[in-house]
Each structure stands twice: as structure tokens, then as C-alpha cells.
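Notebook B, p. 112. Complex prediction, attempt 2.
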Amino acid sequence: MKVIIDLCVVPMGVGVSVSQYVAECQKVLQEAGLKHQLHAYGTNIEGDWDDVFAAVKECHTRVHAMGAPRITTSIKVGTRTDRDQSMQDKIDSVKGNDA
Amino acid sequence: MKVIIDLCVVPMGVGVSVSQYVAECQKVLQEAGLKHQLHAYGTNIEGDWDDVFAAVKECHTRVHAMGAPRITTSIKVGTRTDRDQSMQDKIDSVKGNDA
Amino acid sequence: MKVIIDLCVVPMGVGVSVSQYVAECQKVLQEAGLKHQLHAYGTNIEGDWDDVFAAVKECHTRVHAMGAPRITTSIKVGTRTDRDQSMQDKIDSVKGNDA
Amino acid sequence: MKVIIDLCVVPMGVGVSVSQYVAECQKVLQEAGLKHQLHAYGTNIEGDWDDVFAAVKECHTRVHAMGAPRITTSIKVGTRTDRDQSMQDKIDSVKGNDA
């Protein structure tokens, strides 16, 4: 099953700056070979369900290993059976309605 | 890795009432033997990471099988390494601060 | 416009335990006279759009005033024009499909 | 109070394609003069709390007016008192950790 997710990992108990933990998650996604795009409040990720969620789990594992005692993560998960759609297709279809 | 999640599955393209799909997801959680608690905007689930996310995937599979061509799901995911905490513990610790 | 929301306020930079901040938000909701129900990963709130979002803003104001330098909050927001529905109605309609 | 949010408006009961509704929300944000950036699973928005949430309410009003009987929206809301930070700053601070 193909999935597009939006992932936002929030380490708690590590102070106010969390960018190094987010950067580590970007590394996880790159190592996993998953198409992904960082934005100001999360990261869009596209791929096979199992690959994508294995990467999400690895993000939690790594962020804990970096010293974060607690993590709260928000994920939006989209699947569809009617047609194939990429992250770029979603953006294009909104922009095509902007005329 | 132990996890507490909040799950909200939204079938799209099936009309305005989605309670039968949510009820099917409750069945998935029961069959999986996962501790869970329905609320007005989602379901709290507690268990091992792999068991919990296998159930989330099964929810998508079943809801598509029931005829929903598209699903958008919101998940909050909490893990912690500092101590063990159940869903009930989280509620109790807030209420303990209510005095 | 009537709204049902699910609110999860996460203070950052204040250590690993955040229950006192969540308890303060419960107080805000009580003072605002809004119907609300705490669960293990957030709080369901029901009311008029403006009243509910004024309370959400007040939660941010109070949690910052308690010393949290940064807050990240997740909100799910439901509105409908086809019929009136309470938080309890939503739960009942899922349970009615459980038979 | 300055805020950065991530907004994802999901109209229900209108069929499987929702891009015209998302496009209308983009128009709302433009009319409001709010800095915003569409991504594949939502839109980042930056501005004063009251202006941003007035726009979110207007999105619900317009999407209902277009015929959607039900809407479920996900919002992430970030505020901080320790320093001023823009959407671009957030992206830059993650990328600065990528070295």
C-alpha cells in the first residue's frame, strides 16, 4: 500500500531548540531512500506503507538515543485506492484550481 | 518500544456519515487485543509499537475494503524512555494537578 | 458556528513532565464554561467557534505565563451544517454500529 | 501573539477530490494578506494569532458555502516567547544541522 504522510517529531525534556533532532530524522529518511520534503512544520514523505513507518519508528529510536527522554509526534497519513497520486500531484491539483 | 497513540481515521468519498468505518476500526483494535478507549474525536491506543502500527495499517486496509476510495488519518504518537506510563496514568497525572 | 475540537497543548523547554500545564488548560476551559472531556492524549471541547478558540488562545497565554518559552499544539476541528451533533452523539453513533 | 500554524482542511461528504476547496482556502489566506506556503499535506501560515485564526474560521465558512456539509481540519500551532522565528528560520535551522 502506497502512502503519503506528514511527519512532525517533537522531542520533550531537551530544551527549547529541537532542530538537531529534526535534522537527524531527515538523515533517517535519506538513508531509507524515501522521497521527502521538509517544510516549516513537518516533513512530507512518500513511499510504501511498511518502509515509511519503519522510518518513523527509526526516528523515534534515534531521537531517544540522542538523549530525548520523551517524544510526541504528529502524523497525517493518506492512502487512496482510486488512483495513484504523488506529493507533487497533490500540490499541482490545488494550484490547477487557483486560476 | 511501548507506545501510546491517538488515532483518527477519516474515510473520504463515502458521504457525510463515517461511523460505520470508525466502528470497524474499533473491531480491528479489539481483534488485535490492544487496550483502547474511544473518545469524541479519535481513539487512544496503548501497546507495543509494532502491534499498534500493524493495527493502524489493518484499519486502512479494512476501510478501503468497505468501499472508501480515500482515507486521511491523524495520529499522535507518544514514546518515553524515562518511565513506564499508561493511558490512565496520563489522565491521573493531570487530575492530580487539578487540586 | 458550533464546533467540536480536540486540543493537545505541548509546552517545550520545561522538562519532561507537562501535567501541570495541561491542568492549567483544564482550568481555562472550566472558567470559560465550555463542555470538555479530558482523555489520555488531549481534550475534547464543544461550543461556539469564537468561545472555543478564545479559550485555546488563553491556554497559550497562560502556559507561556507559567514559564514555558515554546508551545506546540495540535488541534482537530469539526464543523457541520447538515445537523447538530454533540461530543456524546459522535461516540454513540460509533457504538451504535458496533452491534 | 505571533503564531506559525500548519493547516489541513478536509471537506467530507463531497466526493473524493477536494482540491477546489483547498484552492479556495488559499484564496482566503491571500485575501487576508497572510504569509503562507502550500505543501503536499497542508499549508504553513505565519502571522498574528487573531488574524491567522480569523482566516481559519473564514476557510470553514467558505468551504461550507461551497456545499461541503461537514469539515474536519487538523491544525498545528506554534508560539514562542524566547525569540522571534519565521517559517523560513525553522527550515534554515534544521538545514544548518544537516552538515
